[in-house]
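Problem: given the chain below (445 residues), write out its structure.
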Amino acid sequence: MSLYKKLQQRALEARPIRIALIGAGKFGSMYLSQIPRTPGIHLVGIADLSPERAKASLRRVGWPEEQFMAATLDEAVRKGSTFITSDASALIEDNAIELVIEATGVPIAGIAHALRCIQHGKHTIMVNVEADVLAGPYLARRAAEAGVIYSMASGDQPALIAEMVDWARTIGLEVVCAGKGTKYLPAYHASTPKTVWGHYGFSDEQVASGDFNAQMFNSFLDGTKSALEMAAVANACDLQVPEQGLGFPACGVDDLPALLKPMHDGGILPRKGMVEVVSSIERDGRPVFRDLRWGVYAVFHAPSEYVRDCFLQYGLKTDTSGWYAAMYKPYHLIGLELGISVASVALRQEATGATGAFVGDVVACAKRDLLAGEVLDGEGGFTVYGKLMPATESLRISALPIGLAHKLPLKNTIKSGQIVTWMDVKHDTNQEAIQIRRRMEAEFK
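Solution.
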């Protein structure tokens, strides 16, 4: 039975999937816009540090006022309405809720919420890729031990890439490379929340619409989000990451199989089984023909001459040899697609992308010369950006994870482009997120 049919059945039985959303920002708002049109779903509660912001998000996406004015969780359950609070723990601990969506984007908060979900037997959909890369392998293992699901979020590119990789492997194809597109120039690594809107070309009217966060959007532009998403894909799909970080080659969809293959076959990869992000613009700023800025892809290799011939017969774009081909999806719809994860986890007991190994890591790299005493401000900020690297190497050099590079004062001067290490910052070893990260490093060493 299709997911939609299963949702309809739950609605007919008056037994909806009862869910909670933590974080009503851009991703959360996009999903909120779809809930009223999805059968078998009851959003029991929303937790946000600003309940008024959550209410504003609901109004903006078209919810009627009476639908989110429940005074208590019990009232929300009885009346099929939604309770809004600043207390995420109250939602996680409520017995009526079976699934929690973590969409805060704050890694320390994401880890805390996931741990509490596991403790209280709740499935977790981790929109918060920052938290997933910081401690996802540890959280996924603890969730499995507790008999609950820890899942990536459909609509986000890592889950869509993982789905594509799973598709290729399930039909017997070897995945050579997988990843996404973005707009990239080397200068973007130095971008700050003050310069981000000019690079995006967003108007003042767009930015004023209510759910555009400058630091969050800058984390996409400065390379941090791409690094995080590729680490998440590597950890979910057991793919390798480039030793020197992402290369961001300029590449359109027609050139994916020609470029993203091993060097010994004329491509740019050191070996098969890698992640990489392709740029939608050339280094001189010219647009790439048929770019993949908003999409995802997988390059795979034919296992036999017969399959190679099938690639050609059915119109797949291949390299000149015909052995390498690519499949791609040109767009992703972020929170609009999240309902796939909710339905899959609740109705099929299947994650839409599941973190497993600790292969890739994302570390803090200085955007400019930083002085001792300066305070790091995390992803998308003014001080550091996230760089992808093999987890073995980040552990060897004791690199500071980008997910923890927030509100930490520097003990040492750091040169522009230099990786920040644990020895360079003052940090509290009693902080929960730091303790979880250290446990993960020991467990997956």
